[in-house]
Amino acid sequence: MKIMTCPLNGPRNISEFVYGGQVKAMPDHQNVSDTDWAHHVFYEKNDVGIVLEWWMHSPSSFWFIAERHNATDEIIRTYPADQLFKQRVDFVANEGES
Amino acid sequence: MPFGLLKYGISNDYPFEKEADLPLPTELKRQYDVVIIGGGGHGVATAYYLAKYHGITNVAVLEKGYLGGGNTARNTAVIRSNYLTPEGVKFYSESVKLYENLSNEFDFNIMYSQRGQLTLAHTDATVRAFRQRAEVNKHFGGRSELIDPRNVAELVPTLNLNPANLPVLAGLWHKDGATARHDAVAWGYASGATQRGVELHQVTEVTDVLVSNGRVTGVKTTRGDVNAGVVIQAVAGHSALMAQKAGFPLPLVAYPLQAMVTLPVKPFLTPLVSSSALHCYVQQTSRGEIVIGGGSDPYPLYNSRASLPLKESLISSAVEMFPFLSEMRLLRQWAGITDMTSDYSPIMGLSPVENYYIDAGWGTWGFKATPICGKTMAELVASGGKVPELIQPFELARFDRFKQVNEMGATAASH
Fold first, then answer.
1. Would you state the pLDDT for residue B96?
2. What's the CATH superfamily of B112-176+253-340?
3. What DSSP string describes chain A?
4. Angle at CA of residue B360, ends B355 and B363, nearest 5°
5. How far apart are CA B369 and CA B372, in angstroms?
6. B146 pairs with which residues across the strands?
7. Cβ(B216)–Cβ(B355) under 8 Å?
8. E-assigned strand segments in B151-193
9. Residues A39, B303: C-beta atoms closer than 8 Å
10. Which residues in chain A have Cβ-Cβ distances shorter than 8 Å to B241?
11. Are A50 and A76 contacting, i.e. CB atoms less than 8 angstroms apart?
């Protein structure tokens, strides 16, 4: 059975985890063009190699970051998301727009 | 014909020269009008329609392994058109029609067998979705109807109507559903294409795509550079990697898809049976083997390894549907890499690079589209880049304009 280490709960069976997509830098949502936003939403890095991904330990709903090789399936390391994301993003709709 | 066979039986000469389906490999030329990357079903079908219907024969199909050795050999050979979106239903219906006549077209038996496909609904929401799919399908000339559990039991007497405590509430019965021998489809297209002058080069890997001033000029291969007027990529699971060589990204994620097959037994199962809640489908091949397939792996991977948890879940679902399968012995298991789009529809047509056409995003629905893909991609090339109406909704640019074709009738889609 494949084991993944949850930063909160320790080593667990991979079936306890849910994949949440690649970690991508979000463009400035106030000023970005529609095309660039679409690109952010729909495109992921497609190289073969180590990728940075969101994962969740579903029994505890704990989201974290994993570095994984997308061809060998080797999990290099896992760590809490606050190591990468230190600032809160507030979504505020522009005035006058619906 | 039997007398012809008898003649070979008593003759000392092996009839290889006369009977060879594919011409022996030739020297790779430096220049072709059209280069097709990928010698799977889609690639050779495109070459076939180009040669037969458009008279374009200076074509090379470059295959890094062997003919039909990738996902063409790994799919579970389901042919159906009972999708949800009008765009999808129109497209796959054309494919079903081409399949029906394909053995005649080739004068070669692809073992096409129209047994009907049955999808089981276990929740009220799925019943509603199936009713919609049946109506959309009927509207575009397909044969689909919603049937009740009693009819389901009549069609498949061996089916457990309460698998995993999920009672079967209804079935989507698609009479056009069929299966065929997937290798034969690739061989038929390849021999038809090569007889008309197309060159199939196996063990010839494309290592780079040559682009100058936004226009494709050729490809680099392990056997030297080749110039080409038009290049088409049809490389299934490696589509995004190939497109990167041409200099643009594709909105694809590669997931492994696993399947398995048992030892052959006497025929007991005519339709192709699939359960929407168990994410499992079961069918019996013409040779008697039971093919078991399901959804993709839960996370992306560029690797066709088989994993125990998915095998376990597939087998347990299949045994729930047909309990006596627990007595069967597994013959083979395998996986393929599927290039999934976020809307479960393919990406076909033009790319940001001029004269470089894409046939990608075939996820778990590529085999059934092989003939129509070949036909429309050939039309696209022959018309000099005019995208046929049938594949316009599947353009790459739809992702930039939020115009996705949300195909929830796809196998991997959760209903």
1. 95
2. D-Amino Acid Oxidase, subunit A, domain 2 (3.30.9.10)
3. --EEEETTTEEEEGGGEEEEEE--PPP-TTT--HHHHHHHHH-----SSEEEEEEEETTTTEEEEEEEETTT--EEEEEEGGGT--S-----PPTT--
4. 175
5. 6
6. B172
7. yes
8. 170-174, 178-179
9. no
10. 46-48
11. yes
Other Cβ atoms less than 10 A from the Cβ of A87: the count is 5
From the list B254, B309, B342, the residue facing A42 with the nearest CB is: B342
CA pair distance B166, B161, nearest whole angstrom: 8
Residue B117 pairs with which residues in a beta bridge? B174, B272
The sign of the dihedral angle between the CA atoms of B314, B112, B357, B206 is positive
Q: Are B292 and B180 in contact (CB under 8 A)?
A: no
Q: What rounded mean pLDDT belongs to chain B?
A: 93
Chain B CB within 8 Å of residue A35 CB: yes
Q: How confident is the model over B326-369, as pLDDT tens digits?
A: 999 999 999 999 999 999 999 999 999 999 999 999 999 999 99
Asked if A73 has any chain B CB less than 8 Å from its own CB, the reply is yes
A19 touches B at CB < 8 Å: yes
B54 to chain A, closest Cα gap in Å: 35
SS3 B210: strand
Tell me which H or E stretch contains B219.
strand B215-221
Dihedral sign for Cα atoms in the order B16, B18, B22, B26? positive
Q: Is the pTM of this model over 0.90?
A: yes
**Is the domain defined by A3-83 classed in CATH 3.30.2270.10?**
yes
A33 touching B, CB under 8 A? no
ipTM score here? 0.91
> Quick check: B251 and A1 CB within 8 A?
no
Residues 6+ apart with CB under 8 A from B61: B36, B38, B39, B43, B44, B47, B190, B193, B198, B199, B200, B201
By the 10 Å C-beta count (0-12 exposed, 13-18 middle, 19+ buried), A68 is classed as: buried
